[in-house]
Amino acid sequence: MTNPPDEKSVKAKILDAAGDVFGQMGYKAATVRGICRAAGVNVASINYYFGGKKGLYRTVVTDLLSRTFARYPIDEGINAHASPEERLQAFIRGALQRLLSPDGLSGYPGKGQLVARELADPSPFMDDMVDQFIRPTAAVLSTIISELLGPGAGLRDIMRCQVSVIGQCFHYAMARPIVTRLVAVDFSAEDFIEDLTDHITQFSLAGIASVRCRGLSANDQQVDGTGKEGTAQ
Q1: What is the SS3 assignment for 147?
Q2: What's the rounded Cα separation, in Å, for the pair 18 and 106?
Q3: Could you tell me the pTM of the whole model?
Q4: pLDDT tens-digit profile of 113-125?
Q5: Is 87 exposed, middle or buried (0-12, 13-18, 19+ CB in 10 A)?
Q6: Burial per residue of 58-67, b for 16 or more beta-carbon CB atoms within 10 angstroms, e otherwise
Q7: Burial class (CB in 10 A: 0-12, 13-18, 19+), 184
Q8: Closest CA to 84 of 27, 171, 148
Q9: How do 229-231 and 221-223 pair as beta strands?
Q10: Cα(12)–Cα(223) distance, integer angstroms
Q11: What angle do CA 33, 105, 84 make, to 5 degrees?
């Protein structure tokens, strides 16, 4: 007589199938029936173990991101007293590893699309994901950029520099099918992430330095009553 599957194995089967289905179809289009069919379990199992579709999705996303951030932390364990340039490089390397490494998000063919799906068509879990994973990450990058821009840096410039830095990392992940067709880029090459880290770091530091110089230049000028810029006395 065959023993019934234990609770742990049933939950694991549901989570595995749900990750693929959610990744391929998105939260809204995915159905409980479809997930159960893929997992080979009855429909009542999702309500029993996860309290419904929303609870299941929350568990899938939280588990995926938690494991990825644990493997590749935001600061890569770099000394808190390291220079902002060194910390920026560590931040960029960690982001690329989470997005592009075989054991990062890209290593889960179906599940790895969850982040892209969430950005394109946010689920009810988006606010929780921002609070738990994105906001702490953004705070680290904001501190680094603020130091690089120097005293008096405006919130707008800090925010724009943040988006410019992380946007470069995300573009390589989101546009990977296009990039590989436009140029001979081997994303699986052992030194690819390290080379890309160096490039994005250098590019970002140059851009941030330009923003800082522009800010310093603006502080040396004032606008008179005619609307013409003059040199501050």
Answers
A1: helix
A2: 17
A3: 0.83
A4: 787 788 888 888 8
A5: buried
A6: bbbbeebbee
A7: exposed
A8: 148
A9: antiparallel
A10: 65
A11: 145
